[in-house]
Amino acid sequence: MTQLLNEIPWGESLLAPDIDPAWEAELKRRGGNGSEVDRRVAPSPWIREACLGINTGTACAISAHLFNIAALVTAQENACRYCYGASRSYLLMLGYSESYIRRIEQEVHLAELDEKERAVVAFCRNLARSRPRPARAELDGLVDLGYTREAAREIALWIALGCFYNRITILIATPPELGFEGWVSAKRLKFLLLGPLMRFQAARRRRGKRDPVLTEAALGAGIYGPVLAPLAGLPGARIMKSALDGAFASTVLSRATKALMFAIVARSLDCRTSEVEARRLLAAEGFGDAEVEQSLASLASARVPAAEARLLPWVRDTVHFQTDKIQGRTREIAAALGNAAALEAIGVAALANATVRLAMLVE
Amino acid sequence: MNAAGAAWLLAGALLLAGALAWSWLRRARQAERLHAETRHKLEQLQREFERFAPPDLVERLTGGRGDVAPQRRQVTMLFADLRGFTALCDRLDPALTVTILNDYFRHMSEAIARHHGHITELVGDGLLALFGALETNPWQGRDAVLAALDMRAALARYNAQLQAKSLPQLQFGIGIHSGEVIAGVMGAGELNKFTVTGDPINVASRIEGLTRDLGVDLLVSEDVKKALDAGFRLRAMPPARVKGKPAPIQTYHVEHHEARP
């Protein structure tokens, strides 16, 4: 059963906050909020950029209402105490009532949502869970209900980005924003009255903000291009592309390890498109077909540096997990690899899960 | 109607509206409370249910999703049986016997769950665990053998505890085989469970039986061997005849696993 906020077990944080005044100033300038996550991912340039992009990013084809509901449901489905608590408090701040939120969390068919919105909630749960793996037909189902193709893709993209962010916070065991949650809870009545005004202001700010978008050619050119190309015109696609380019350009972990991590997640979710892309990356590292097959079968490879070998069986467990158990296993990874490599591995695992979930929908 | 009459009428209407609103609010709160209680009971029931079936399966059944329909699947089956436990039962106090058995099952279950498997059957002192039955698992053969090696280590630790209490130690035999079976919820009347059926399950059981004849604790079939990499140290055993198979079957004893081949 999908867990509620107070049912999610949550361990001690894996990483301490890294206070970098220059980055904190940059965060402020770009509309970030200096959250517990921002401070913990600060040492990795591509992860911190991706997290900031997700926190400040906007959707263009779906309503803010749907965007916020999708964030809540995805975080709940991924059992991310941090994101779930923050999303919930944000909804309360926008004037959504406690009973309204509770119905979305517990019994969506009782919530005051129309058929199209309920379908999105179900889609969020299915894609985040991927058990059984969703396919393109589920995305087409949203179009059949009346969403534009662009809106359906944007919903899927933001669920995938949510899966990325949720995994970052889960694997780090980022301490929940209890201060924010408590503040919103204390002023609940005020927000209930002022919420509609805040929603209006948020929508106005959103309308005034135009995030840059990339063309199909630009998205299709790089790593995992065939997965990204259909997202042309959506502002969130840029976050995904920057993260993929940044992750594979980073030198903290070997490229062979990262490509194998992607291939393992692809095989776990039985996603042929993702595996083909990962194989392309592995071929560039000198892997032959038989070697890839052998590495995938054994979850090991002589080309992976000894210190990184334990990341291959571990990444498989980041696909479906029990929060407390995966946090425990990630703690072992950090103890063996050190914090910098562990943060990088967390980022790669989170990104592989997000990318493969998107790829399943283009097959 | 004069002004006083209209005021009374208005006051009456307001009072009635207030009473109706209050009554509606009360009913809504009652419904909300009832809903919360029902959900709480359902959660309790689900947690109890999870003691008897894997959580994933419970989730699928309670979620009303139709993906537990019977289907042919490639599954790896692990049979484990305690040796000489029946004789031990005759010597030990029944309560102590049950405690030892339950602790043994707990250790084995933990080892199996660590490697993506789940126990589907406990019969006497034997158990059947499945890998890849609930969802596609490309590493099911590897998982099953790693689980068996983990079970071996867990049994050694448990035996040390038993020895410290001057209790008899346990020995088991494990047989592992992979093949296509029908997986689904099976049973009759009030007794239903998620399990598998097909010839490979008989073969797995026969391989477990061979551990006694061949004097080893862990045997895998040729099909399982194919899924294993060079990190697994295997010793080929003499081909042996088993009931229901016209030709002798080849098995391998798993000695250990080295993390990096």
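qc> The interface with chain B takes residues 1, 99, 106-107, 110, 131-132, 267-268, 270, 294, 296-300, 302, 306, 309, 316 of chain A (CB under 8 Å).
qc> done
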